């Protein structure tokens, strides 16, 4: 549905090359414009103003410092102009959906893989299931006995598997006495989709549908988990447990929304509330 506004999109590369002839605007290895990952954005004035104006704003108003090495010569390099497409939205038994996410997801997962990942989720879930389950949890909290210290971390006795980034009890390498599953090691020799990047001097991974798992009733959490390893438990745990300031070199901040068209969660919640009142 959308075009990636990055330096890996050949259309964007050609657009910038035509606007700035003779300049090496985009690094072909990283797809970045003088260090920036996107080619269109709001803000980011250092890629839109002249070097002199940025330096003056920095001196007088403590704004961001100019880009180093005087790389900015013929600004602006960025635009906030959107690309607009019209599509017919399909609802019903197989509704269309829209994935909106920050680059922390797209750094690791392609558009096609993200769509395939949500389609896999839909084979095991319905968009409104999470509303019904949350209502059940709230009813348990409302009508059940007082929460003990043992249950304080789980909100309700059966909600443990629905906490963000937990693995299902039947397959989780947890500490509750269960044996860890037999999973491929996340090393280059054991997993062809994990490799060493000599430029960044770091271990990297490729997202592939063959590593996808379905363990969450939240489609956004489902996408994030699979972008950071999926069934490769050791890889996922390693990526998620790196602490600041090193974490920024392993994973970017991630925000994900999945919108299912033709699904009215508010109406469903209201209907369930009314049904509960009638009971």
Strands side by side in the biggest sheet: 1-2
Rg on CA atoms, Å: 23 Å
- Residue stretches low in confidence (pLDDT < 50, at least 5 long) are 152-164, 166-189
Give the distance, in angstroms, between the N- and C-terminal Cα atoms: 44 Å
Quick overview of this protein structure:
With 279 residues, this protein is α+β, with helices and mostly antiparallel strands. 31% of the residues lie in helices and 8% in strands. The protein is built from eight helices and six strands; from the N terminus they run H-E-E-H-E-H-H-H-E-E-H-H-E-H.
Verbal overview:
The structure is a single chain. The chain is α+β, with helices and mostly antiparallel strands. The chain has two domains: 10-70, no CATH class; 97-278, no CATH class. Helix content is 31%, strand content 8%. It has eight helices and six strands; from the N terminus they run αββαβαααββααβα. Strands 1-2 form a two-stranded antiparallel sheet. A two-stranded antiparallel ribbon has the order 3-6. It has a two-stranded antiparallel sheet with strand order 4-5. Strand 1 (26-27) and strand 2 (32-33) form a beta hairpin. Helix 4 packs across helix 6 (219-227). The radius of gyration is 23 Å and the shape is globular. Residues 152-164 and 166-189 have low confidence and may be disordered.
